[in-house]
Amino acid sequence: MPEIPGSIWRRPDMLAALRARDIAQVLQLVRQYAGASQTTIGSMIGMSHGKVSDIMSGNQQVTAFEVFERIADGLDFPDSARVALGLAPRAALAIPAQDGPRTGTPGSVVPPRSVEAIQRGEDESTVRRREFVGLAGAALFGAVLSDNGPAAEPARDIEDLAAALTEYPAPAPTAPALAPLAAMVTQAKQDYQACRYGDVLTVLPSLLRSLRAACTALVGDDRLKAHALSAEAHHVAASIMLKQEDKGLAWLAADRSVQAAHLSEIPLMIGSSARIVTHALMDGGHHRAAAGNASTAAQRMDASLSQPSDNDLSVYGALLLRGAIAAAQHGNRHTTAELLDEAEQAGRRLGHEGNHMWTAFGPNNVLCHRVNAALTMGDAGTAIDYARRVDIDALPINERKAALLLDTARAFLMWGKHERALHVLRAAGQIAPEEITGRPATRRLVGDLVTTAPVSVRREAREFADALGVSA
Q: Which domain of life is it from (predicted)?
């Protein structure tokens, strides 16, 4: 049997196929990159050549849980690939050694049934099938966090990003083409807003290097465009580093974004870059400076908003929202309310939920920030009241939906409603798995939930935390 290279499972096209449950594409990629024939693949997964051919040609769709499991086991999916497909990772299914092994399909470990499952007469396959259905759509866990597993990948990517941010620009033999770079920046922004942070980290280092070369080699309007793209790409880099709580790299990337924005000579880009600097200031505890930076940038824009475009209103409103949260963290209720009200007016003028200039600004986003501000100032009840008014389906990006749900979970936890907090956390994991698995702040929240949960919720909370690898 051919050995399937481990790198296959980290390929962007393979991850996309797994997340879409496109088994035809999965098998095509295995055939292409492992050199396995249809007959060989069939032997590995226990299917006839004809069956494999029908699946790969699209004549037959794979929808049954048992078939997904057979394919995952036969091709020896790593846990990251199992999770992307929506199957429980083996690490989460493993049982303590003292209980003795219990096997199901070849190469898999079947979890012990809960007391409740036994009382309901459910067997192992029923339990696993229910777990699989619960993971439908976006997988509940975007990565398996273990010492030797996928968790090591982001660390390497971050080291590469650090190098890309600090290297002296090497001269480019030829001026890079702008169109492919613009497409890559757009994809990086889209992946970030979809909470596919691992995918973004994979491409950012080479993208930043290419953009730096473009800014050096190009001239005239093309150089200005290259600086604008560089501002956007560094904005993404800073945002991801803030989520990873890497303050040093976040500050460095934010500074690079601001420099590139000013070099682009585009006022909107300059205003947009002020958002990430404000965020970095907040993350460093400089809340008064952050509020002042956002307010000043918003005032500069307000002076020229007699006939604003959707981009103008969105950047202006996003700056006001960022300033409001900074003021809330500084404990300034008056300024917080004032900035939120101004942002609400900008949202009304915009009149719809948009994602202009990658801001996700709109009336519902203003409500999301009211949730966060109330939570920041210790008013869990008000935060939940605002959260109930948000039309989450109207929010244009998953990152904003996940942020709202995590704030709501924190509010419920603060309010002592542990069961509701757990339910909301699970919903956030369905929408944006990497917001749950990849962020230290979210993992701390899960730990707090387990630590403070009453007996009635503790078992479920513990199971949820164990699957994430969170100790409390």
A: Bacteria
Q: What is the pTM assigned to this prediction?
A: 0.67
What pLDDT is stored for residue 402 in this prediction?
A: 93
Enumerate the domain spans of the chain. 6-134, 146-265, 363-472
Tell me the per-residue pLDDT of 47-85, one tens digit each, with 9 for 90 and over: 887 888 889 888 888 877 778 888 988 898 887 788 778
**Architecture in CATH of 363-472:** Alpha Horseshoe (1.25)
CATH code of the domain made up of 6-134: 1.10.260.40
SS (H, E, C) the chain: CCCCCHHHHHCHHHHHHHHCCCHHHHHHHHHHHHCCCHHHHHHHHCCCHHHHHHHHHCCCCCCCHHHHHHHHHHCCCCHHHHHHHCCCCHHHHCCCHHHCCCECCCCCECCCCCHHHHHCCCCHHHHHHHHHHHCCCCCCCCCCCCCCCCCHHHHHHHHHHHHHHHCCCCCCCCCCCHHHHHHHHHHHHHHHHCCCHHHHHHHHHHHHHHHHHHHHHCCHHHHHHHHHHHHHHHHHHHHHHHHCCCHHHHHHHHHHHHHHHHHHCCHHHHHHHHHHHHHHHHHCCCHHHHHHHHHHHHHHHHCCCCCCCHHHHHHHHHHHHHHHHHHHHCCCHHHHHHHHHHHHHHHHHHCCCCCHHHCCCCHHHHHHHHHHHHHHCCCHHHHHHHHHHCCHHHCCCHHHHHHHHHHHHHHHHHCCCHHHHHHHHHHHHHHCHHHHHCCHHHHHHHHHHHHHCCHHHHHHHHHHHHHHCCCC
pLDDT on residue 88 = 66
Residue 227 in this model has a pLDDT that exceeds 80 = yes
